[in-house]
């Protein structure tokens, strides 16, 4: 509630009028907004329209959701009491975040993911480290497994049946099987638009839809679907609409996953650089090697940087562990400004801090380059 109040105050302070209600297109320039089902709709016309309606959890049709034992990632916010055992179907960002949070609460968690790799857009060395830590905590990871059925038995246990023949028996099953765009009530056809089967909109590099004066931003246009990038997309779309200045898509941005431990990255991964034929070298620092890490008693966590062999420019920064989503911004800023390996070696970092890992990782990369 406090966050909503702060946002409303910011909108009011900047002269933004908020119209409560549910909207749908009457035509490509006109919206009808109803405050309630019983009220008459009001019409609003505009030269430009930005669609940022977000998404909701996707619910597979063959799964009997009941909001109690078989739930989605929205239902989980209201569960009471906490289960002793839990299955999380879906190893994407939301699934992994919830799975690790509940695992940290000493709940036995099994993650079921259809793909062979979890979070395949994350650097694989970071993911190997992460999976080692969560498995060490007792979490079970079932990758390459499809869910064929899910039901509640006579004893109140949830039986999650896998296509391979395996069964996962738990107190609770949460499905995080992707997201569905909230576009089904917008009457997009009245504006000459069409969403894909997941309710998402296709946009160009300026966030314009197929109808050039209508823009799409945020989760409704797909990856990365994060609050931080969504806000920036909205700003760029509005600026392009009102000024005509080219506001291209974000090419480099930090990605934060609020799992336990956290994961964050900016720039390219090893696999991406190899696929592009870019010669590079890496440098790694483990948090337990830093004084601050020892003070905090950290046994897990690492920072990895990727540097170009040609000019030593930073190409990617990847962090796993305590404060990863904060630490990544140092590397992201240096990368955006074209900073090289030498910047980290010659800079002074406060001691003791986890940020010191940047210098340790840079020295590691330097040693590898000097061989």
Describe the protein in words.
- There is one protein chain.
- The N and C termini lie far apart (56 Å).
- This protein folds into three domains: 2-53 and 180-243, FAD/NAD(P)-binding domain (3-Layer(bba) Sandwich); 70-178, FAD/NAD(P)-binding domain (3-Layer(bba) Sandwich), CATH 3.50.50; 255-369, Enolase-like, domain 1.
- Strand 7 (85-89), helix 2 (93-104) and strand 8 form a beta-alpha-beta unit.
- The protein has a five-stranded parallel beta sheet with strand order 6-13-7-8-9, with helices on one face.
- It is built from nine helices and 20 strands.
- The longest helix has 17 residues, at 227-243.
- It is an alpha/beta fold.
Net shape: globular
State the major sheet: 5 strands, parallel
The CATH superfamily of the largest domain is identified as FAD/NAD(P)-binding domain
The CATH class of the largest domain is: Alpha Beta
The N- to C-terminal Cα distance equals: 56 Å
* Spatial strand sequence of the major β-sheet: 6-13-7-8-9
Q: State Rg.
A: 23 Å
- Determine the fraction of residues in helical runs and give it as a percent range: 25-40%
Low-confidence stretches: none
What is the helix/strand order? HEEEEEEEHEHEEEEEEEHEEHEHEEHHH
Average pLDDT, to the nearest integer?
95
């Amino acid at each position: 509630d406090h966050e909503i109040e702060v946002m409303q105050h910011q909108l009011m302070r900047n002269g933004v009028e908020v119209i409560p209600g549910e909207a749908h297109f009457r035509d490509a320039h006109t919206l009808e907004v109803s405050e309630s089902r019983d009220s008459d709709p009001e019409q609003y016309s505009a030269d430009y329209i930005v669609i940022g309606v977000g998404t909701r959890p996707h619910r597979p049709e063959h799964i009997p959701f009941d909001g109690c034992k078989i739930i989605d990632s929205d239902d989980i916010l209201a569960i009471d009491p906490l289960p002793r055992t839990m299955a999380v179907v879906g190893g994407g960002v939301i699934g992994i975040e919830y799975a690790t949070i509940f695992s940290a609460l000493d709940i036995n968690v099994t993650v079921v993911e259809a793909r062979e790799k979890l979070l395949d857009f994350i650097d694989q060395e970071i993911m190997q480290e992460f999976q080692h830590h969560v498995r060490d905590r007792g979490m079970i990871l079932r990758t390459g497994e499809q869910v064929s059925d899910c039901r509640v038995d006579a004893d109140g246990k949830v039986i999650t049946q896998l296509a391979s023949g395996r069964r996962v028996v738990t107190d609770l099953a949460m499905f995080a099987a992707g997201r569905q765009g909230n576009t089904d009530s917008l009457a997009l056809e009245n504006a000459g638009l069409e969403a894909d089967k997941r309710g998402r909109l296709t946009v160009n590099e300026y966030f314009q839809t197929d109808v050039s004066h209508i823009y799409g931003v945020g989760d409704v246009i797909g990856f990365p679907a994060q609050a931080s990038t969504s806000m920036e997309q909205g700003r760029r779309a509005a600026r392009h609409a009102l000024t005509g200045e080219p506001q291209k898509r974000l090419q480099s941005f930090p990605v934060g996953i609020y799992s336990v431990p956290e994961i964050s990255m900016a720039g390219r991964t090893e696999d991406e650089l190899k696929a592009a034929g870019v010669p590079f070298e890496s440098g790694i620092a483990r948090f337990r090697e830093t004084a601050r890490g020892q003070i905090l008693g950290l046994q897990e966590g690492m920072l990895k940087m990727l540097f170009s062999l040609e000019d030593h420019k930073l190409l990617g920064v990847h962090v796993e562990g305590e404060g990863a989503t904060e630490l990544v911004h140092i590397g992201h800023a240096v990368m955006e400004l074209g900073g090289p390996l030498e910047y980290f070696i010659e800079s002074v970092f406060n001691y003791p801090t986890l940020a010191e890992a940047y210098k340790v990782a840079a020295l590691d990369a330097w040693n590898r380059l000097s061989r």
